[in-house]
# Entry
Amino acid sequence: MTHTRQNQRTLNKGQKKRFVDAVLTLKRTGRYDDFVGTHIDFYRGDGDGELRVAHMTPSFFPWHRKFLLEFETALRKVDPGVTVPYWDWTVDRTPGASLWGADFLGGNGRRSDRQVTTGPFAHRHGHWDIRVAVTDGDFLMRDFGRPKDPVDLPTGAELERAMREPVYDARPWNSVAATGFRNKLEGWPIRHGDRTWYNHNRVHRWVSGHMLGAGSVNDPVFWLHHAFVDLCWTRWCARHPQADPYLPGEHHRNVLAVNDPMPPWDTPVREMVEHRSRYASG
# Structure
């Protein structure tokens, strides 16, 4: 089955409604919260001493690609015409961007408690209770730009610095790898104690609220964000055709090699490296 991903800014009113309705259906049936739980379960860091498959690791891209495809499969069981649109955060960089409209994802959280009060995922409408999370509260929270500790969305130039990297990943294959596309795009500070975040991680911090940390799937913008991250990996592979699209090739401590299966699906990493038979981006 081919999945076509579309830039969210090109969606018409009907397409937005179909996506929102499908997401709300998954929430109502409990299926959406299964995805939240999966992301929480596999959010592990360098210091945990366990296998890392979703973050701070070379399998960051293939794991989230599989996660996206599983979510799209669930959406299409509700509405076969729905896929996940992508959010190019180097272009749509303000709270006034169309994805934050009341007819799509809703806007920022209110100042007092960061509660989202507009759009279909506002708690007051009764359709979006936060049930699976690592923080208290049953309403969706956002805090655009983190005014108390300001942060901007990544620029095109900052993304370009990651896209120029000639190798996929580099030792020590974690959050402090100083070179390699994966960590430059995933966006961890390369020095302990550094407060600078990049690309993917900076977007999570800019949206803030539930987008911070393991429970970030509670905010539906998670999927649009990761659809763009996935597109960036695709574009990087096309731009560097001579580069190995996944490293390391052999097993290395707590990270996956290309032939290793990714939990929880038991899908080998290599199956997610090739994408053309699965979906295209519009």
The chain has a mean pLDDT of 93. The radius of gyration is 18 Å. The beta strands are 3-5, 261-262, 267-268, 279-281.
